[in-house]
Amino acid sequence: AGVAGLEIRPTGAYTLAMSNTARTLPGPDGDEAAEPAVLAAAIAASDADPRVIPHGEMRAWLLEIAAGHFDAPPPVARDP
Question: Is residue 35 part of a domain?
């Protein structure tokens, strides 16, 4: 049976190949390789600090930064 004048016939097994394979990406540079360790150290330091910044104050400051007020003073951490 044909579709719009095309005849469809089974031809057997198909072989798939890519004529242009994906290029190999270079590994992380020094900064990217060090980033996980730096983040882990920052998280550990933060977890060890008992002081807190209320969510509402942090959110308000981040909204100021997002609005382009880069000189907005950050909220101050305080003891719980």
Answer: no
Q: Which of 44, 53, 55, 57 lies closest to 79, judged by CA? A: 53
Ramachandran quadrant class, 12 (left: phi over 0; alpha: psi -120 to 50; beta: rest): left
Which residue is it, tokens 């977890």? Answer: 47
The total number of structural domains in the chain stands at 1
Expressed as residue numbers, the domain containing 74 is: 53-80
Residue-wise pLDDT tens digits, 30-45: 778 888 899 999 999 9
Alpha helices per DSSP H over 1-80: 30-48, 55-66
CA distance 80 to 28: 40
Q: How far apart (Å, rounded) are the C-alpha atoms in residues 14 and 37?
A: 48
- Compute the average pLDDT of residues 20-24: 75
